[in-house]
Amino acid sequence: MESVRREPVPVLRGLVYRHTGFHLPDAAERARLELPSGAATMLIAFAEPIRIGLVSEGESEVFQRTSFLSAGRAIAAIGRHRGRVHGMELTLSHTGAHHILGVRMAELAEGFPTLGEVLGREGELLVEQLASLPSWEARFATLDAYLARRAADSQVQASWQVTRATRLVAAGWSLRDIQRDVGWGERHLRSRFLDQVGMTPKAMARVLRLQTALRAYLSGRNWAQAAVLARYHDQAHLGHDVKAITGLTPGRLAELRRGAPPGSALDRLPGRVTSVLMG
């Protein structure tokens, strides 16, 4: 498998985390569990479509997509593909996606909208242009230029209160203290998060707390220690969250990671646990 990663140009820092180009020749069906990580993802595919749906104990709608967006999720998704996989993956901050795409982020959390649905014909032309280019460097440069132009022309800007609140959530502050710090009540903060992040502050806190626990465990701690470090009441509560969010028990998730540390070649972001190969 060919995989090439690049950091975005400086003007996109804080909005975009990373670009990845990938090419996997014809292969048998593969399944990949994508964990919520506190970031938004844009997938731009040049080959076969991917079947993707949310983890669910009951019936869950499965979407067939080539190029699409995933954001505002507080539960894992499973993507399945067969044959050649070729394309690009772009990881953005939620507020960065809000600024660049100019949409209400909660709308992106409803299914997995295509680039055409979000950006119109412009999104479809972008995919065609990127697919026609001869090298990853040319594709990265073209994508950076497109995103920088949209960012410069955007009339949508995340409020400083939401930007600060997301940092405080990541730092483990209580929601009450965050509301006091930014001067907003619970209802208003929740509404603005849905607009600019795509999930509620409580949901984001849950996602990032699980990420803290997984990072601790996969860095060598045991599950009890990971629960303490992530501020769970006890190990049982951590186990419940792992199962509810990923659909796997802690033991099964660890088994499928096969010892890969946080931020490995499998993951979309440094220091986070974003993906698990299901076999």
From TrEMBL:
Q: Which Pfam families match?
A: HTH_18
Query: Does Transcription regulation count among this protein's keywords?
Result: yes
Q: Which GO terms describe its molecular function?
A: DNA-binding transcription factor activity; sequence-specific DNA binding
InterPro entries given in the database record: AraC_XylS_family_regulators, HTH_AraC
The protein's UniProt keywords, in alphabetical order, are: DNA-binding, Transcription, Transcription regulation
What Gene3D superfamilies does this protein map onto? Homeodomain-like
Domain of life assignment: Bacteria
Is Iron included in the keywords of this UniProt record? no
Domain HTH araC/xylS-type, which positions?
173-256
- Entry protein name: Transcriptional regulator, AraC family
Taxonomic source organism: Catenulispora acidiphila (strain DSM 44928 / JCM 14897 / NBRC 102108 / NRRL B-24433 / ID139908)
